[in-house]
Amino acid sequence: MPRYRVMYAKEGPARYISHLDLIRAFERAARRAGLPLAFTQGFNPHPKLSFAAPLAVGTAGEAEFADLELSGNISAGVVAKSLSGVMPEGLRVIEIRLVPDSAPALMATVDLAGYTARAVLAMSLDKEMVEKAIAEFLARPEILVERRSKSGEKRIFDIKPGIITMSAQINDDIIVLDAELKTGSSGNIRFEELLGAFSENFCIPLRGNFVLCRRALYTAGRNRQDMLW
Asked: 175 has which bridge partners?
């Protein structure tokens, strides 16, 4: 059955929907578009729809990916046009490509994610001071955060091995923190964890909160141009 890889943006009000609601939104959109969805076998069949690394609720995504299987061959352009007209507010189709059956699953492909946090400063801040704080933060032997398991048990986890890069920019009263983090099935670092750990030792005076965005997802090998196509 043909498999279509969808690059889409998750923005505006859609930032606040859960991953489960995102799956339902795609399924409803595909049905409204009249696309012949392919289904799994068994007592509880469901559409063959899979996503790359889930986004945290409240985080926007500029270039997210999903795979959709259909029971009939349709050109990728027609699928894109059909889905674009029925997507709910905040979910925007950017591009759709047909991928070969032999292509690995999205979760097995994604290896790295680029993030941005943007906020308004409550007072002026020296860029060199922030850069020094980041350098000292990344020089630590460990960067420990607390995570809860599915059973609710608290565990301490070292996120430092999964931090690839971290940097800051300050333009007038706007601060932007950028990071590239390990993600995917073989390891996953949450951007909120990184920001929380950094903020514990370097308090940034903000007017409001950071607005978070995942800029892109990349394949294994960390080639910044090699997205999940």
From this structure: 119, 170
Which of 103, 123, 144 terminates a domain? The answer is 103
Tell me the three state secondary structure of residue 193: helix
DSSP H/E element including 107: helix 106-109
Both structure tokens of 109: 């492909």
Residue 129 has pLDDT above 70, yes or no: yes
SS3 percent helix, strand, coil of the chain, rounded to 5, is 25, 35, 40
What is the domain count for the chain? 2
Per DSSP, which regions of 11-121 are E strands?
Answer: 49-51, 60-69, 91-99, 110-120
Tell me, yes or no, if the pTM score tops 0.85: yes
**The domain containing residue 55 runs over which residues?**
3-103
Is-contact 106 115, C-beta < 8 A?
no
Helices (H), 85-119: 106-109
CA dist., res. 215 & res. 42, Å (int): 37
Would you state the structure tokens that stand for residue 184, as one six-digit string? Answer: 């995917």
Q: Token pair of 116, please?
A: 């941005």
pLDDT (0 to 100) of residue 154: 86
Q: Rg of the Cα trace of the chain?
A: 20
Angstrom distance (rounded) from CA 179 to CA 213: 11
| 156's tokens | 């301490």
pLDDT in tens, 162-203: 999 999 999 999 999 999 999 976 678 999 999 999 999 899
- CATH code of the domain containing 90: 3.30.70.580
Residues 41 and 66 in one domain: yes
End position of a domain, from candidates 65, 85, 103: 103
| Together in a domain, 213 and 121 | yes
